[in-house]
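Hi team,

Below is the intake form for TonB-dependent receptor from Methylomonas subterranea. Please confirm the fields before the structure is written into the shared record.

FORM ID: S-0412
PROTEIN: TonB-dependent receptor
ORGANISM: Methylomonas subterranea
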Amino acid sequence: MKPHAFWIMLAAAAAVPAAAADAETELEAVEVTADTPAQRITPNFNSIKGDALKLQQADNLGQTLQNQMGVANASFGPGVGLPVIRGLTGSRVRIMQDGIGSHDASFLSPDHANAIEPLFAEEIEVARGADIIRYGGNAIGGMVNVKDGRIPERVPERLLQGALEQRFDTNADGTNAGFKLDLGRDQFALKIGGFHRNRNDTEIPGEAIAADAIREQFGLNNILNARGTIPNTDSESVGGFLGASWLGDHGMAGMSVGHFTNRYGIPKSSHGVDPSNLDGLELILPDIDPALLDQFDDILGPQALNPDIRIDMRQTRYDFKSEWYAPIRGVDKAAFRYGLVDYSHTELEGRLPFTTFDNRVGEGRFEIEHHVLEPWSGTLGAQWQDRYFSALGVESFVPPTNGDMLGLFSLQKLAFGQWRFELGLRTERSRIDPTATELTFPSPPGQVSIYPAVALPESLNFRADSISLAANWQAAKAATLSLSLSRAKRSPDIQELLALGPHLSTRSFEIGNVRLGNETANLADLGLDWHGESLAARINAYANWTEQYIYQKLQPEGFYSYHEAQFYPACVNLVECLPVYAYHQRDALFLGYEAEAQTTLADTRFGQLKLTLFSDFVRGRFIDDDVPRLPPLRLGAEIGFGDQRWNAALRYTRGQMQNRPGNDETATPGYHLLNASADYHWRGLEPLDLWLFAKANNLLNEEIRGSVSFLRNFAPEPGRSVVLGFRATF
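The structure came back. Fields below:
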């Protein structure tokens, strides 16, 4: 591509026009007991805890939640799994740990793992719709709050309590081990926890790369593939925390410190390079006699031409929490939370450090819960955040920035007979200050880029105002209708505004757009809850009209060669070929539903036999095209049998073909997913509770390629696996 042609493309991209409740919701709470093989959902909020959570816990947060209605897993190999809520993820889904953001680099790119460890979770809350207004613009698509109780909220009944857990996964010989200890006396409590996880390369039923899809997308035929495993997908993580609290009659105060490390590999875009068949690389390499190629393994071998990409992640966080109960008449509680997070990860290519990402954030929340009159209650609060972000090194496609945010919100509730109403308001101001004055295009060592630099503003400022309304009507003893309406705004994030450069992990060259404005989600959410003696059911339908939706648009002008730092009109080979994506804005409409119904088929002296049916679906459309990387229609059934001591369940999920993948994406085939689980509580030695469990995933050993994954054509989901484990609570 000629320099002036690319400059025209960049100018066109930059010219795009700019354009709440928390867990204590008035909706009925979800109770998960040992004899319930499947949990019910609510229209805007649901939680998973107890044995149901322990059975679903996996190596990452996305895998842990992927069976929840309306939630999918955006995998990037087994080391990364981010929740996708109603088709939205990244900067649109706020992931929190005990009410404070995770503040890792998962917002920046789908290859960056979340820094929250699911093994520690005691409860995971998922909110979407109008309920998320109190959490800010980055929760416009939903909120996930992982409660691990690392700051103790009660004194243990005995001087020492705790839990030990061990798991083994037959797929990749994965092992998980963790522990928690609770100590306390009088008004003081202490909690300690730690874990270690290790796994080898992920085992799959067929080939790693979908050759037909690569041929369709890139026009390439000669691909060296891997079969049976996905190379470079091994991982190891370790972490721990220490928390302490003072717990009084009228208040509490506590803090915790935790450290987390995660080392994992990114699946390759090509699993090996044959020096005798360079598939186009000879066009950009010196003319070498083929008979001498084996002498140049250091420059033409697999690691030289297509090195392993590994990520070494570290995070240290300090959390503070205090609450004051009924300080004055009419005020039920005043709560303060603050988190200080120091996150970094280094991307290594061929064992050499290429780029280091740092994200240092301080976030605080102050909330007052009032109950002035009998039918009227609510929450007033403030949220603030300071952030410094940098990406330094060879692949620094986003410049260092300073930023801050201040949000004020109010959520008011009114109960009147069979009706309950909610009103939420939020105003939020955010600022992003790049430390650089311009962005420059990458260039080969010792050379000056042939492309002109892009000037940056001194500061980017945004204001986002949001409102939500909700009504809940107890139409009958067993039936509740709910309707929520919201208009929520999100300001663009760092990478959407300022990206410029190659990103090898996602196989793309990214171009930001400093002229982006707020995107606005106009959401209508209608739900029906039926909770009778023999049937419990929920169905929820929604429409989300998003004005100025921010997305990455594939540019037609060409591909970027990473090693030569130049643009070409056609893809040379799979190793060198990086499609060019620029951030744009367009209006988009999302329509979808979530439904689940559970009934008891038989109630015997050995236990209850229960049947659960479920389905969810979302479709997103621009005016003339589909929104890319959305989950397909899912539907299925689960049958479970058990009581308070033991349970067994068989779950079948049918994922339909995703034949609306979006512009320049490839379709993904449908799949049949069969899972099974069994668990047993042995309480023969009080106070010891020994819980034994087993779960089998993908029993049919299907090749499943998730349509929400950037790497679906290079790394399918894991094949058949059996997880065996125990948890001892004392």
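SUMMARY LINE: The longest strand covers residues 577-604.

Thanks, M.
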